[in-house]
Design a protein that fits this description.
By secondary structure, the chain is α/β, with parallel strands linked by helices. The chain has two domains: 4-176, Rossmann fold, CATH 3.40.50.1970; 179-361, Dehydroquinate synthase-like, alpha domain (Up-down Bundle). The chain is 45% helix and 19% strand. Strands 1-2-9-6-5-3-4 form a seven-stranded mixed beta sheet, sandwiched between helices. Strands 7-8 form a two-stranded antiparallel ribbon. The termini are far apart.
């Protein structure tokens, strides 16, 4: 029996546990059983993940007495939209799912976001469980209750805050993850060090090779550390009225990169990596962060094999995408910048000319 590491996200009656370990999928039934109000369970997954992990999860849930319905969606950020969401509702309604049903999100951040949003809306709200199978989802997207879909004008503009009943993180799923997906997840790992914990950032710098090997001895404690940081921030500010916005470090720039490239060039974590370099550069440019902050951030991301430059596209396109970002408040774009590695701050008074200069300075040469 492999050890479990458990964290609690304290939100009163809506709080839940984050369970982390290796080879946990066979234990899903016993872990979920106390949380499920009825016998109907729908496993929402993707065409990529289903051949790998649907069978063991469905078997474990069946052995626990559940009636299991698989719902397999097309894979990719470009499918995080209304027609795909409708596929979930169609399957639930056609199979006469009731208000006591439970949804299980088995996959990466896209599956988690859409399943959570579907759970928030179906029958005006049914419980759901997150089983993230990508590193990015394990350290970030599965925790905190942000759900939603994209709109052509911007990412995650349609959705709801809706907390899961449980997050089950099995690091063994990372062994089948394509290297590019692992690297994209590393961007979110680095994010936590940059925004909250300089020691974590230094630990990542010292363990790059082990992390790239997906060594569980190194990776599990770091995943746990990242989840603990997020749980603490979410517990203090669930609906992003203040400090939770710090978790968006690199995301305003990153979402703009995804939008202008129509979600077809970069994985989300890759775009966030670019966004963090831009945020560091802008922080230095505005005199908020010390010199060489950007150099250190860029160097670590490059060692992890992540992109650090924006595609050569009109600056106006990036600025327009940023203006449609959901973090815009009173017409001003809220940016997460750095005072130093380990301490991020929220700013909404940055001159657009400085933002444009940062975008220009960090564009690819071709």
């Amino acid at each position: 029996m492999h050890p479990l590491f458990t964290l609690s996200l304290d939100l009163g009656p809506r709080g839940y546990e984050i369970v982390i370990g290796e080879n946990l999928l066979g234990r899903v039934g016993s872990l979920v059983k106390p949380l499920a109000p009825g016998q109907q369970v729908a496993i929402v997954t993707s065409t990529t993940v289903a051949p790998l992990y649907l069978a063991p999860v469905a078997t474990a849930l069946g052995e626990a007495g559940f009636t299991v319905l698989p719902i397999i969606l097309p894979d990719g950020e470009e499918y995080k939209e209304w027609p795909t969401l409708q596929m979930i509702f169609d399957a639930l309604i056609e199979n006469r799912f009731e208000r006591s049903a439970l949804l299980v999100a088995l996959g990466g951040g896209v599956i988690g976001d859409m399943t959570g949003f579907a759970a928030s809306a179906f029958m005006r709200g049914v419980p759901f469980v997150q089983i993230p199978t990508t590193l990015l989802a394990q350290v970030d997207a599965s925790v905190g209750g942000k759900t939603g879909i994209n709109h052509p004008l911007g990412k995650n503009l349609i959705g709801a805050f809706y907390q899961p009943r449980l997050v089950l993180i099995d690091v063994a799923t990372l062994k089948t993850l394509p290297k590019r997906e692992v690297l994209a997840g590393m961007a979110e790992v680095v994010k936590y060090g940059i925004l909250r914990d300089a020691d974590l950032f230094a630990r990542i710098e010292s363990n790059v090779e082990a992390l790239l090997r997906v060594d569980p001895e190194v990776l599990i404690p770091i995943i746990r550390h990242c989840c603990a940081i997020k749980a603490e921030i979410v517990a203090a500010d669930e609906r992003e009225g203040g400090q939770r916005a710090l978790l968006n470090l690199g995301h305003t720039f990153g979402h703009a990169v995804e939008t202008v490239t129509r979600y077809k060039t970069f994985l989300h974590g890759e775009a966030v990596a670019i966004g963090m370099v831009l945020a560091a550069d802008l922080s230095e440019r505005c005199g908020i962060a010390p010199t060489a902050t950007t150099q250190r951030v860029r160097a670590l991301l490059e060692r992890l094999g992540l992109p650090v430059q924006t595609p050569r596209l009109p600056v106006a396109d990036y600025l327009d995408a940023m203006a449609h970002d959901k973090k815009v408040q009173d017409g001003r774009t809220r940016l997460i910048l750095l005072e130093e590695i380990g301490r991020a701050v929220i700013r909404d008074t940055i001159d657009t000319k400085q933002v444009a200069a940062t975008l220009t300075a960090n564009m690819a040469t071709k």
